Amino acid sequence: MALDLKPVRGGRRHRFALALKLAWRDVLRHKGRSVLIIVLIALPIAGMSAVASLGQSALASPQEKVLHQLGQTQARFSDLHAQNAFAVQDPTLDTGYSVMGNHPPEPGFVPTKPRDAVPAQYRVLTQRGISITTPVGKAQVPLSALVVDALDPAFVGKFTLVSGRAPAASDEALASSGLLARFDLPLGGRLVTSAGSFAIVGQVRDAGTSDSYAAIFLSPEQVPATLAGMPGSSMPVDSF
Q: 215-218 and 196-206: which strand pairing?
């Protein structure tokens, strides 16, 4: 009588059940080896999961990026120095732009000034970066200065007063931890710059930069006329 080799209905389920039963018997018979195999499989998976989770947690979320860059302000307007009307602002790098199509610079083109683009009933808070110098021995060392009212409530989340106090006189200023460390300057110490001599009375952290970044924070009134005309970097806007 010939053998009937046609597949039996439900045969796969029976084979799977048999394989599972044999595997379970083997696990119970060799418990130590089975645990070792499970550990060897689980450790790389757990390690990769931990590394992936740690890497993702180190990245700022979109909400955190907005908070660190804008604080409580509603927007930031920057002068892009566009050369024609076809310039399009980059959505992630607001100080850069691209030109749609092949359009050369337009002679005499005058872009809209950032302040003129601010809607009505909004308060304008200026922020710009300028380069000043400070004497170190016989050399004049470049130093970054942020011209901004860093302790304005609209900047909560971006600028934080870590230690010290707010300036109370025209010759008092704030500084980052990087500047204090760079020049070994304690709070209350005086820093001589090309913008004037200032007593550093407070330490400020800028959430958008590294703590090692060296910068002094000045108010617009503290910037001499010779430096006041330097181009600004951005203009935060806060609603009333």
A: unpaired
Sign of CA dihedral 88, 89, 92, 98: positive
- Is pTM, for the whole model, over 0.85? no
d(CA 23, CA 207): 56
pLDDT digit string (tens) for 153-212? 999 999 999 999 999 999 999 999 999 999 999 999 999 999 899 999 999 999 888 888
16-35: per-residue pLDDT in tens?
A: 777 888 878 877 787 887 78
The residue count of the chain comes to 240
Closest by CA to 234, choosing from 104, 80, 22, is 80
Instruction: Give the Cα separation of 136 and 95 in Å (integer).
Output: 32
